[in-house]
Amino acid sequence: MSVNGKKVLHMDRNSYYGGESASITPLEDLYKRFNLPGTPPESMGRGRDWNVDLIPKFLMANGQLVKMLLYTEVTRYLDFKVIEGSFVYKGGKIYKVPSTEAEALASSLMGLFEKRRFRKFLVYVANFDENDPRTFEGVDPKKTTMRDVYKKFDLGQDVIDFTGHALALYRTDDYLDQPCQETINRIKLYSESLARYGKSPYLYPLYGLGELPQGFARLSAIYGGTYMLNKPIEEIVIENGKVVGVKSEGEVARCKQLICDPSYVSDRVTKVGQVIRVICILSHPIKNTNDANSCQIIIPQNQVNRKSDIYVCMISSAHNVAAQGKYIAIASTTVETADPEKEIKPALDLLEPIEQKFVSISDLFAPTDPGTESQIFISRTYDATTHFETTCDDINLNSVAKLYHGQSPHLL
């Protein structure tokens, strides 16, 4: 917004950047935040070696957030590493997600005939062009459901599970009865992101996600934006139904528009659920991931008799977020019962032995109105997913997509 000439004042009640999605350093501060007794053991190295994300997420290499970072040139302040692998859970084991024709034929996730059918499906998706009816092969992208497309290629339930949840990144199976165009485009995005760097479609910034808001802060400052940390918000000032300012420490900062997260406007949001996150410190890579120093694992809902998926993402000292030889794995899912910790157990079982756990259960909020009248625009709370695509859907990025010309972020 600063880059496009708007006058921006960013106020934050916290003493650090990033709000609820901050990276916490040193490690001692994480212990305090979760009210754990004592201090981290010496085996965990220096506290300053740690930058632990409270809400970890990866960036899709060809996704909306990367396009936004490139368009705004925030990438000049960031360096990224490719996540080493993307895995899916089936029958108590984890398998690499096949997303190319070659990987589909080599995967132990499917039988021989299933592999051939899945390969045909991937070729169809790769050739699909919503502007060219010749690529539809009898499918109407705006009417044919995804369930019917799977039927057309005779794909079994396990293949449907990992395609919908590990490639298209849906959290539930509601998409099956929706028109197929959105799902096909999601799978194309996954494949295109994978093609950019090879190992996986995901990127992660060195030193943790806390670098993202700091990068935006630096860029905003160059274009005249002002940042104020440690600034208590006392009142949102409204006149004739429209926001006109924000009161802090007895002073009012006048404004025409206000953008904030749900915690600042509890009277304008509604609770839509809960999410459980468990941050785990490990001294080993996750089993059956080829000793990857970073990865994502998706546990599709049907594999554990749930309505929503369970996510695991892991990063390590290779990303300058942990002490040498240490790994940070975070499991998350949408809460469905009165016993959230039991719900997340399938993910934690994959991580054993766990050196230290930090458990949080957070409420999810959504705005009760779009904000066009009041000019108060409220974001949704971060969901359980381990990627930024759903978060970016909260923002209109059409202009960004148009201005993006296929650049790449800095990779190390």
Automatic annotation (TrEMBL):
Cited Gene3D superfamilies: FAD/NAD(P)-binding domain, Guanine Nucleotide Dissociation Inhibitor, domain 1, Guanine Nucleotide Dissociation Inhibitor, domain 2
GO cellular component: Golgi apparatus; membrane
This protein's UniProt keywords: Acetylation, Cytoplasm, Golgi apparatus, GTPase activation, Membrane, Phosphoprotein
Highest rank taxon of the organism: Eukaryota
Subcellular location: Cytoplasm; Golgi apparatus, trans-Golgi network; Membrane
Membrane-topology descriptor: Peripheral membrane protein
GO biological process, one term: vesicle-mediated transport
UniProt main location, coarse: cytoplasm
InterPro entries found in the cross-reference section: FAD/NAD-bd_sf (IPR036188), GDP_dissociation_inhibitor (IPR018203), RabGDI (IPR000806)
One Gene Ontology MF term: GTPase activator activity
Its job: Regulates the GDP/GTP exchange reaction of most RAB proteins by inhibiting the dissociation of GDP from them, and the subsequent binding of GTP. GDP-dissociation inhibitor preventing the GDP to GTP exchange of most Rab proteins. By keeping these small GTPases in their inactive GDP-bound form regulates intracellular membrane trafficking. Negatively regulates protein transport to the cilium and ciliogenesis through the inhibition of RAB8A.
Family: Belongs to the Rab GDI family.
Assembly: Interacts with RHOH. Interacts with the GDP-bound inactive forms of RAB3A, RAB3B, RAB3C, RAB5A, RAB5B, RAB5C, RAB8A, RAB8B, RAB10, RAB12, RAB35, and RAB43; binds RAB3D to a lesser extent. Interacts with DZIP1; this interaction negatively regulates the interaction of GDI2 with GDP-bound RAB8A.
Name of this chain's protein: Rab GDP dissociation inhibitor
Gene from which the chain derives: GDI2
